[in-house]
Amino acid sequence: MTSIHMISIGDQLLNGSIHDTNINWLCKRLTPLGGIVERAVLVRYDRGSIMFEVRHGLLAAVRLLITTGGMGPTADDLTLYSIGKATHRPLVLNSEAMRMVEERYAYLAKQGHFDNGAITPAREKMAKLPEGASPIYNPVGVAPAMVLKTRVTTILSLPGTPNELQEIFNGPIQPTLSQIFGEST
């Protein structure tokens, strides 16, 4: 069995304005693959809380640590920064993630969802990943998902918006899941 910890991040989850469905959805899909979810928590947009939970997963030597939420362009989106601090890896502008962000903003601007697709510092923030991490294409939203492999633990960060999380899980993240769980995925 593959040990898993999950961290769902967002103030709105803890003030009751949004019901977390991501953890349940993920548990239903990971358990049949051979995953055993040992811990699932909700935390606020708080660096210390996120770092504490990431470090807890690393110290527990779980095979898979999944975060959901906190990956957007706003100042309170602290997930990747907190993972970087918890793993002692600086955030770096990832060229592949930058290309993904640029392409998604250009496409969404062309569709009329944004006035323009220009890359602002806030938008560029979504392409800054902990050193050594790889971006995973987001076919629905803008922020790429992220995978970071440590000595024992694979950290998978997914957007908190359920349709984005589900599309990434069902598509672009499958090769990573196959490496973790075997070809049963």
By secondary-structure content and strand pairing, the structural class works out as alpha/beta
Percent strand equals 15-25%
Regions with little confidence, pLDDT below 50 for 5+ residues: none
How helical, in percent, are the residues? 25-40%
Query: Helical region count?
Result: 8
Q: Can you say what the CATH homologous superfamily is?
A: MoaB/Mog-like domain
Give the number of DSSP strands.
8
* Sequence of secondary-structure elements: EHHEHEHEHHEEEEHH
CATH first level:
Alpha Beta
Radius of gyration of CA atoms, rounded to a whole number: 16 Å
Strand order of the largest sheet: 2-1-3-8-7-6
List keywords for this structure.
single chain; 185 residues; alpha/beta; 6-stranded mixed sheet; two-stranded antiparallel sheet; globular
Structure overview:
With 185 residues, the protein is of the alpha/beta class. The protein has one domain (2-90, 131-181): Molybdenum Cofactor Biosythetic Enzyme, Chain A (3-Layer(aba) Sandwich). The chain contains eight helices and eight strands; from the N terminus they run βααβαβαβααββββαα. The chain has helices spanning 11-14, 22-30, 47-59, 79-86, 95-110, 121-124, 162-170, 174-181, and strands at 2-9, 35-43, 64-68, 91-93, 128-130, 134-136, 145-149, 154-158. The strands form two sheets. It has a six-stranded mixed sheet with strand order 2-1-3-8-7-6, with helices on both faces. A two-stranded antiparallel ribbon has the order 4-5. Helix 3 (47-59) packs across helix 4 (79-86). The longest helix has 16 residues, at 95-110. The mean pLDDT is 95.
